[in-house]
Amino acid sequence: MYVLPAIDIREGKAVRLIQGDFLQKTVVHPNPVAQAREFKAAGIEMIHVVDLDGALMGKATNASLIEEMKKETGLKIEIGGGIRTLEQIDAYVSLGIDRIIIGSAALKDPELVKKAVITYGDKIAVGIDAKNGKVAISGWLDVSETDYLQMAEEMAKIGVQTIIYTDISKDGTLAGPTFEDYAKLTQLVPGVQIIASGGVNKKADLLQLAELGVYGTIVGKAFYNGAITLEDMLEVEKNAD
């Protein structure tokens, strides 16, 4: 199982939110590129980056910063936040970004996902963010009537090979992941790589997610407050397969 430390970018800084609430923001590093260098130095191979400004604005607001991060570190990067068009995806691929996450647009515009998968294959992931089992969109500001499992099935049929699933109620809370949701997803779409996001609080959470068969887990707040160390992440990644 891969373990991906997270860098969420807001106004040029690395931040953490609670349940996606932009009013509950904590700056965890003033320089996201320097944070990425720290991950690289520790032996991390891939990071999860979210352009929070992009999620609000619907465009790649921090693309130049993300490009610098890629050039400076050479880390594998998956990026999400505000990706609404094939042109944006083209631009990120041209920067050398390894995986591009389509979030809200996947629900609103499944044709975009189809075109992206046809063009870029496994470089395309879909982010499914849910609240009480229903898919949330527009930077988590709106909740649809679509069930997260239904959406996962639809994305699998399109040919999406990676899904990042977040239970919004757990994000940034350190309350523990919603393990039952990941169990359902791995059983429903066994051919899809499921990446867990939200609520991870301790090393044991990572091990339990690995037992469920998820492909990867994103660690955010638990790293920044010291509950999970880089050594923990690397150890789990090495031994939890």
Residues in β-strands, percent:
25-35%
Please state the CA-atom Rg, rounded to the nearest Å. 16 Å
CATH topology (level 3) name: TIM Barrel
Number of beta strands: 12
Structural class: alpha/beta
Instruction: Kindly give the count of domains.
Output: 1
Shape category = globular
Mean pLDDT: 91
What's the N-to-C terminus distance? 6 Å
Secondary structure tally, helices: 11
CATH architecture term = Alpha-Beta Barrel
What string gives the helices and strands in order? EEEHEHHEHEHHEEEHEHEHEHH
Largest sheet: 8 strands, parallel, barrel
Instruction: Provide the CATH superfamily.
Output: Aldolase class I
Low-confidence sequence ranges: none
Can you summarize this structure?
One of its GO terms (cellular component) is cytoplasm. It comes from Enterococcus moraviensis ATCC BAA-383. The chain is of the alpha/beta class and 241 residues long.
